[in-house]
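Lab notebook, bench 4. We co-purified these components, and the gel suggests they stay together. Before we commit to crystallization screens, I want a quick structural picture of the whole thing.
Request: model the full complex, all chains together.
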Amino acid sequence: MFLSNLAFASDTLKHAEEAHGGESSSWMLHHIADSRTIDLEPFGHINLPQFPPIHIGGIEIDLSITKHVFFMWIVSLVLVVVLSLVAKSYRKQVVPRGLANLVEVFVVFIRDEIVLSVIGKEGLKYLHYFLTLFFFILLCNLFGLIPYGATATGNLAVTGGLAFLSFILIQLAGIKKHGLIGYYKGLVPHGVPGFVAPIMFIVEFLGLFAKAFALTVRLFANMTAGHIVILSLIGLIFVFKSVLVAPISIGFAIFINLLEILVAFIQAYIFTMLTALFVGLSIHQH
Amino acid sequence: MPELAHIAGGFGAALSVIGAAYGISKLAAATMEASGRQPEVAGEVRTSMIISAALIEGVTLFAEVICIILALK
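Here is the predicted assembly.
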C-alpha cells in the first residue's frame, strides 16, 4: 500500500519539477486538488471524458466529469449495491450475519446515539438522511486512503454541497414544526429586552449560515490536512535527498495514515452529529 | 513578498494550534473530572465533549486553511 503511494509521490514530484521548474509545493496540490485525469502512475493516466461548457445567462457551467466526481460515483455505486444487499438479507432472516452485522452496528448507533439522543422521537422521520450522510461521507473519506484513490470530501464543492443539503433540512425541519413565521420568530430567545431583540435576530440569522459554513470547512480541512501531512512526510525524503531519512518518514507516514482511518470515522460521525444537533435546535426552540 | 507570507503562514499555524490545544486540554480535563465523579453519565459527557472539541477544532481549521493559502501563495 505504502510503496505505491511512495512511487506515486516520487513520480508526481518528478513531473511537477519538469512542469513548474522545481517548485516544491505544487506536487502536493496536484495530489489533493481536483483534476480531469485519474493518475495511475507508473502505468500512465486515464483522461476523463470532457463536455463543452453550458452557457446559462452569462454563467459558464462546466459539467465535465472530474476525479472527485468519478470517486463519488464509485462510492454511490458501492453504497447502493452493498446496502441493498444488506437490506435484502433481513427478508430471509431477522438475525443479521456477516456484512449485515457490521452495517447494523452503524445503523443502530446512528439511530440510538445520534438521532434519538439528540433530536428525540421526532427525529426518526429524518433518520434516512442521517444514515445516507454518514455512510456517504465515511466511504468518501476511506476511498481517499486507498492507493490511487481520491478524497471527494477533500473538495470544498463536495462538502459545501453536503452542508447545503443539511442547511435545507435544518430550515425545513424547523419550519415544519413551528410554521414559517413562528420558526424565524423563535430564533430570538424569550425574555430578551425589546431593544436587543433586532440585534439578536440578525446575529442568530447569520448564525444559521455560519453553522453550514463551519460544517463545510471542518470536513474539507480535516480531510485535506491529513493528506498534506502524509505528503509532507514523504516529501522530506526528497527535501533532504537522502535514503537515510526514508525509514523515519515512512514510519511516521504509516502512523498518520492509520490515524487518518480514525479521522475518517470521527469526521463522518461529527458531520452527522452536528447536523442532528442543529436539526434538534431548530425543532426544540426555546 | 512570498517569504513574508511563508513566515506569516508558519506563525499563524503555530498560534492557532496553541489556542486549540489549550481549549481542548481544558475540555478533556473537565470531562475526565466529570466522568471520574459520576461514572454513570460518562457516555453523555463524552458525547458533549466530542461536539465541543469539534467546534473548537472547526475554528482552528479556519485559521489553518488561511495559513495554507498564505504558505502556498
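Chain B has one domain: 4-72. Worth comparing against the SEC data before the next meeting. The mean pLDDT of chain B is 87.
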